Amino acid sequence: MSGLRAPSNYTEEPPRHPSLIVNSQEPFNAEPPRSALIASYVTPVDLFYKRNHGPIPVIDDIERYRVSIRGLVEKPLELSMADIRKLRRHIVTATLQCAGNRRTAMSKVKAVKGVGWDVSAIGNAIWGGAKLADVLELVGISKLTSVSPLGGKHVEFVSVDVCKEEKGGPYKGSIPLIQATNSDAEVLLAYEMNGEPLNRDHGYPLRVIVPGVIGARSVKWLSSINIIENECQGFFMQRDYKMFPPTVNWENIDWSTRRPQMDFPVQSVICSLEEENTVKPGKIVVHGYAASGGGRGIERVDVSFDGGKTWVEAIRYQKSGIPYVADDTSSDKWAWVLFKAEADVSHTTEICTKAVDISANVQPENVEVIWNLRGILNTSWHRVHIHVQNPDL
């Protein structure tokens, strides 16, 4: 690929918001404070979590940048950014969430391997670009195709990003061809984020956005698109981001027994409070986010102010002035909802939240039952502890 290079050192890292919580410096992985997430429905670019597996590429010459489309296609093609921009521009509001979001809480049960994310490896943005379904038509693959004329069943995305897990090779992942060619799935080759060109942290000049799916499949710094018969055999598809039962450990693991994780499960988190809080007696208002994968809207968010004994239904909202209805066209199906609930609290307690999506999926009560050695998909009830001060002190 012309026009791209990996930085020789980290002095070329882009500028970043000072409030980001850095979980690793090389490669750079950081999340915003949880309170930043509920400040706005659309997450500002500089407060959107940063997830990387290697050094961040540098674009030297955008005029020479090309994305190749090859593999099991009749008409292999190379596209410039100008070519991609000629296609119909599509906008989608979609939440990305790292599969390891809330890993830190899971690690308290038993040690896991992975970046120590708190609750903010998630963000909601407005993505602009060309639909992948439109791009694939350029190489002779029509809409709603599950098997291409030459036998392709999956679409592999390859990055210019190099990572040690791939032995210095590029990061890559894939999705089924039927998903890629379904316009309603709204898979994008995105060049805009919140109305501005992508920045380096988020994949400049071009990345994939796969709405409703764990962030690992939304490959950044796109280099090539391959139409292949079987799913991608890269490390992050075959030996990572898979959900194992609590009985599996590093001695008995068999990666081939599990499918690569795609949709993320239903999730909710309280963001207006930290894990431990000291407050005065009286009204407590909690705010947070809830999201579910696969385009499944949030039917309900329940909040308990007494450790799960009783529950109140939270108010859910997305855009100001427009009522949120989970499966209505006025709502963003790929995006999170924000929620609000309040109650009087007079004594030390635990506040919990659990969300229910439109398929009636609900978060599990305890993290122990979903513990896994990679610490992914912690969607257990989110809990924060409230210590009420003696009003006479």
UniProtKB/TrEMBL annotation:
GO MF entry, a single one: molybdenum ion binding
GO biological process, one term: sulfur compound metabolic process
Gene Ontology CC terms, in alphabetical order: mitochondrion
Highest taxon above the source species: Eukaryota
Domain Moybdenum cofactor oxidoreductase dimerisation: start-end pairs: 260-388
Region Disordered: start-end pairs: 1-26
Listed EC numbers: 1.8.3.1
Coiled coil (UniProt feature): none
Domain Oxidoreductase molybdopterin-binding: 53-235
Xref: InterPro entries: Ig_E-set, MoCF_OxRdtse_dimer, Mopterin_OxRdtase_euk, OxRdtase_Mopterin-bd_dom, OxRdtase_Mopterin-bd_sf
Enzyme class: oxidoreductase
Keyword Transmembrane: no
Cofactor names: Mo-molybdopterin
Name of a matching Pfam family: Mo-co_dimer
Record pathway: Energy metabolism; sulfur metabolism; Sulfur metabolism
Keywords from the UniProt entry: Metal-binding, Molybdenum, Oxidoreductase
The protein's name in its UniProt record: Sulfite oxidase
Species this protein is from: Prunus dulcis (Almond)
